[in-house]
Amino acid sequence: MNSYTQELKNTARAMVAEGKGILAMDESNGTCNRRFEKLGIATTVENRRAYRELILTTPNLSNYISGAILYDETIRQSTQEGVPFVKVMTDAGMIPGIKVDTGAKDLAGHPGEKVTEGLDGLRDRIAEYYEMGARFAKWRAVITIGDGIPSYGCLEANAHALARYAALCQEGGLVPIVEPEVLIDGDHTIERCYEVTEKTLHEVFRQLYVQNVAYDQMILKPSMVISGASCPVQAKVEEVATATMGCLLNTVPPAVPGIAFLSGGQSKERASAHLNAMNVMFKAQSPWRITFSYARAIQQPALEYWRGNPSNVAEAQKLLLHRAMCNSAASQGAYNTDMEKQPALV
Question: Would residue 304 show up in a list of annotated catalytic residues for this protein?
Answer without folding.
Answer: no
